[in-house]
Amino acid sequence: xxxxxxxxxxxxxxxxxxxxxxxxxxxxxxxxxxxxxxxxxxxxxxxxxxxxxxxxxxxxxxxxxxxxxxxxxxxxxxxxxxxxxxxxxxxxxxxxxxxxxxxxxxxxxxxxxxxxx
Amino acid sequence: xxxxxxxxxxxxxxxxxxxxxxxxxxxxxxxxxxxxxxxxxxxxxxxxxxxxxxxxxxxxxxxxxxxxxxxxxxxxxxxxxxxxxxxxxxxxxxxxxxxxxxxxxxxxxxxxx
Lengths: 117, 113
What we know:
The structure holds two protein chains of two kinds. By secondary structure, chain A is mostly beta strands.
């Protein structure tokens, strides 16, 4: 089965702790993305990566960090600096078109719900 | 710069009646436009996509959307709602040349028996 997997499905964190959310894809996609979803709001882009060992900040990168050591994997760390981390986190991927630009159809994982206790 | 506005945060219909979810967009480029559906605690699934070919786009599960440049709209419709259509729907505008993708705030569709 080809697709995007995220783990864990639910995650609880104490204040002051860092946590890492996993995202893996076997679609052979070059580009990967992390979004945050809050009730009543659309998705907001945290980070994205178009190639291994390279990533770019999105609209709300503060308090988050990522790595892209392998094409298949794009883990997101929510650090203690993120003031309001309780949210639903979605990972997505897409293929790259010509000239290194995204073809823009994104495929999403099932999400991780993070709750800060 | 791009933006997208979903005109209704919540739409309620009876099973078997038509569905209309409204979306207006703003873009300086020739955008691609999408509709995604999200069931509770799930990821987003692509319903349909417009990329400057036919203005009427047919998607999965009987949904379709019409691109109207003069009205900067991309409304989603379905002739007859089914209970399984109850979900959150997102309209998305994208400029792939600049790697910029914007999501609307979502419309929650409720289907009454």
